[in-house]
Amino acid sequence: MEEKRKLIIVNFFTALRAAGILALVPVFINMGGVAAAVLATTCYLTDFIDGFLARKLHASTFFG
User: Which of 3, 43, 47, 61 is 20 to 30 A from 36 (CA-CA)?
Assistant: First the structure.
């Protein structure tokens, strides 16, 4: 896999997590605690996937 594609994949999960964290408070206010907990868990899982892929693909960037 070429280097640029590796970085795009890893950065996608980092950006997804960042967007989820920014949406956490509005989700909590509008949809309640269960929806916010699901979103927080999803953010945690994307953090795990991001770290796993970064190590496996040997991909590291300033962003994530």
Answer: 61
